[in-house]
């Protein structure tokens, strides 16, 4: 019996790294097709940014006479000096207003969304699902449908044409509440909350010292989305504001662009201002993406 076993073992083929079965290999044609498709999408997405960079480096004459997708004489620094000097330097207040609206609005909105989503995920109370359904309904309502009702509400309290008429509506984020509830339910264990309560920790202390840290990837995501939405917000300031010193950069550049027929130099200033207005968004993504990736990686390891 042992001889038979040895004989079979001697003739049994060995599975080495060369003969072991491998998974399905992607064909070279599919890889080339996928790479080509992604390259086309990348060019489509980056071409407007490249055009904006090229246009901002030109003079007003070169902007009209030269090829639009390539550089001509370099006038970027001249355009920047003219941009920040136009109309007694009104562009800088516009930029600071946008930073204040978007930065403070996104920060407060993220905190409120995290608190609301956490409460909907971790507390049991009557009407919780109904309230959550109302929040989901708010996600589906377009911002354009809310502009006029918001204007009428602020007009009743004489708050139009003020900082608060743009800031207060910006801190409301139904999508942020939805995302916070989903993430809190998945990342904040009930056992951890029970242990904190047994140790005598209050609800607010537990939320700010433990739950917020566990929800940090979701909060970074909400902040980035909210920051971009507020930064690009155009209709609400257009409806609410009349004082140009309160304008965000989007509305200010729109007013310049609408006056190009009377002052052609505003065209190149609008393009240069648009390029400058992209910089804070890029910086926000570059600064926050490492926290985002770190949080997601930690969640993947825990799961």
Short summary:
Helices cover 75% and strands 0% of the residues. With 303 residues, it is an all-alpha fold.
What does this structure look like?
The radius of gyration is 28 Å and the shape is globular. The protein is built from 15 helices and no strands. α9 runs antiparallel to α12 (216-231) and α12 (216-231) runs antiparallel to α15. The chain starts with a helix and ends with a helix. The protein is 75% helix and 0% strand. It is an all-alpha fold.
Low-confidence stretches: 1-10, 297-303
From the alpha carbons, calculate the radius of gyration and give it in angstroms.
Answer: 28 Å
The shape is globular
Instruction: Count every helix, treating DSSP H or I runs of 4 or more residues as helices.
Output: 15
Tell me about the largest β-sheet. Answer: none
Characteristics:
15 helices, 75% helix, globular, mainly alpha, disordered C terminus, disordered N terminus, 303 residues, 0% strand
What is the topological layout?
Elements (H helix, E strand, L loop, with lengths): L1 H10 L16 H29 L3 H6 L10 H10 L5 H32 L5 H13 L2 H14 L6 H8 L3 H14 L2 H9 L4 H12 L1 H16 L3 H6 L8 H9 L7 H38 L1
Helix pairs in contact: 2-15, 4-15, 5-8, 5-9, 5-12, 6-9, 9-12, 12-15, 14-15
């Amino acid at each position: 019996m042992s001889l038979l076993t040895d004989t079979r073992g001697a003739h049994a083929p060995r599975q080495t790294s060369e003969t072991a079965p491998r998974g399905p290999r992607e064909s070279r044609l599919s890889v080339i097709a996928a790479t080509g498709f992604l390259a086309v999408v990348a060019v489509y997405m980056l071409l407007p940014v490249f055009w904006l960079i090229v246009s901002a480096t030109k003079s007003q004459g070169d902007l009209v006479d030269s090829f639009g997708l390539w550089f001509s004489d370099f006038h970027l620094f001249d355009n920047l000096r003219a941009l920040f000097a136009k109309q007694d330097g009104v562009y800088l207040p516009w930029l600071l207003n946008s930073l204040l609206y978007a930065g403070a609005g996104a920060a407060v909105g993220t905190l409120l969304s995290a608190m609301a989503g956490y409460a909907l995920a971790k507390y049991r109370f009557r009407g919780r699902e109904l309230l959550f359904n109302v929040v989901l309904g708010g996600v589906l309502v377009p911002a354009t449908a809310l502009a006029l009702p918001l204007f009428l509400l602020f007009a009743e309290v004489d708050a139009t044409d003020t900082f608060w008429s743009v800031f207060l509506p910006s801190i409301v984020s139904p999508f942020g509440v939805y995302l916070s509830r989903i993430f809190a339910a998945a990342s904040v264990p009930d056992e951890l909350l029970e242990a904190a309560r047994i140790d005598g920790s209050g609800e607010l202390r537990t939320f700010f010292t433990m739950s917020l840290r566990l929800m940090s990837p979701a909060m970074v995501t909400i902040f980035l989305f909210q920051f971009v939405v507020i930064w690009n917000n155009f209709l609400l300031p257009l409806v609410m504001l009349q004082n140009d010193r309160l304008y965000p950069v989007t509305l200010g550049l729109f007013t310049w662009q609408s006056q190009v027929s009377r002052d052609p130099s505003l065209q190149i200033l609008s393009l240069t201002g648009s390029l400058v207005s992209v910089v804070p968004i890029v910086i926000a993504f570059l600064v926050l993406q490492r926290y985002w990736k770190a949080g997601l990686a930690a969640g993947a390891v825990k799961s």
